[in-house]
Amino acid sequence: MSPEAGGPPRTESARRAVEAVWRIESARIVGALTRYTGDFELAEDVAQEAVAEALVTWSREGAPESPVGWLLSTARRRAIDAFRRRSALDERYAALAGRLTEGEASSGAAVPPDRRDDLPWDPDRIDDDVLALMFTACHPVLAPEARVALTLRVVGGLSSEEIARGFLVPVPTVQARITRAKKTIAAAKVPFELPPAGERRERLGGVLSVLYVIFTEGSTATSGDRLLRSDLAYEAIRLARTLSALLPGEPEVHGLLALFELTAARFPARVGPDGEAVLLEDQDRRLWDRSAIRRGLAALGRASAAGRGLGPYGLQAAIAACHASAPSVPETDWERVVLLYEALGRVAPSPVVELNRAVAVAMADGPGRALSIVDELVASDRLSGSHLLPGVRGELLARLGRTAEARAELELAARLCRNVRERSVLLRKAAALA
Fold first, then answer.
1. How far is CA 166 from the centre of its chain?
2. Facing residues of 253 across strands?
3. From CA 99, how far away is CA 206, in angstroms rounded?
């Protein structure tokens, strides 16, 4: 990335260069700086300051030969300045209190003596830095929504505005979550390091769940006027690919990646020209991303090859593989899908899993048996307030010829649904039963 010929580089060109480098390399940059400074919050702050400085300097001078090195150098200088300011301030406080004796260490805030003057970039530790960053951002001391925001910010490199847009929350809300998360990590003295081997698998579940939440919101937005928030979904895929490369021996990491790839493969066919939702049975399967399907099946194969049996994400990926390999909805291996949902219900029971099993049972054995499963969920009140339950129940009642009941259920589902595109599908189905 060199300066444009014939004149100074434009601001827009510099902005694109900075954004590209940050999106790709932010995790490694923040991870290396955290290891260098020993301060997670400071590392993220000085990295952001370096990005802001790059926008100005690269607009004037052009992007450097080593953009990552430039950002690291600049951030490192900012960190040293911060250490010096802290040290000087602490020394002034101590002097005023009359407690600073000759030769006494100022506060521990000075630049660590064992740090070299070169860049905080050890090629042998890049993987460890990124992995430690993921485990830090997803630390159980944080609330779930804080883990999601912090992961997208420091590991994914997304701005507060992008995160807010993806989850349809105000920007100040996202900024407050990130700020609180960093302060919580500092207050809890969470070390920037990989958990011990004995704890890693237990903690890994939290990392995977954060990525799952991000992808799920991207693949079917909870609310708003878009069905897909593909930027979130593809960011989750990118992070899952990184995680699978860093932890190649963990089958559930590959299972999660397989689920993401196989689900995202259908994105091109899930939305019509006007943004309307296209149901599975109406999708043009020629639009499905075959490369993503191949990647997903390969990841599922790696998850299966571990020989431990598929976990919750691997089982969901296996279900997605049934859809990906079927030429049509009627030709899908619904019996296998039912068996996979039964297995998923044993290892990760939830009302949503039961509801999805009911859908598969309806396709394999007819709506009667499926309705009894759904009615049990209604009686247990385990999905109260969700549009999913009346939506499925309405479909089953319609197939059984109970039109008036079906219409009432679909209208209820539409009232509960917060996504404009999904709601319009439900209303169309209800209107068709009038």
1. 11
2. none
3. 45
> Count of CB atoms within 10 A of residue 290's CB?
11
Residue 151: partners with Cβ closer than 8 Å, 6 or more residues away: 134, 137, 138, 210, 211, 214, 239
Ranges of the chain with pLDDT below 70: 1-9, 88-127
How many residues are present in the chain? 434
DSSP code per residue over 107-140: -S-SPPTT--SS-S--GGGHHHHHHHHHHHHT-T
Give dist(CA 296, CA 255) in Å, integer.
9
Q: Are 35 and 192 in contact (CB under 8 A)?
A: yes
Q: What angle do CA 186, 174, 193 make, to 5 degrees?
A: 30
Predicted local confidence at residue 4, as pLDDT: 45
Note the pLDDT of residue 90.
63
Judged by phi (left if over 0) then psi (alpha if -120 to 50, else beta), residue 189 lies in left
What distance in Å separates the CA atoms of residue 178 and residue 186, rounded to the nearest whole number? 12
The whole-number pLDDT of residue 223 equals 87
CA atoms of 317 and 233, how far apart (whole Å): 15
> Which candidate, 165, 167, 170, 127, places its Cα nearest to that of 147?
167
The one-letter amino acid code at 176 reads A
Question: Sign of the CA dihedral 116, 122, 125, 126?
Answer: positive
CA 40 remoteness from chain centre:
20
Residue 110 burial (C-beta neighbours within 10 Å; 0-12, 13-18, 19+): middle
Give the phi and the psi of residue 393 in degrees, each rounded to 5. -60, -40
- CA dihedral (288, 268, 295, 301) positive or negative: negative
pLDDT confidence of residue 382: 86
Over its C-alpha atoms, the chain yields an Rg (Å, rounded) of 26
Torsion angle, alpha carbons of 87, 91, 92, 98, to 10: 170
Give me the pLDDT at residue 8, please. Answer: 52
Report how far residue 192's alpha carbon sits from residue 41's, in angstroms, rounded to the nearest whole number: 11
What is the predicted pLDDT for the residue at 102?
Answer: 40
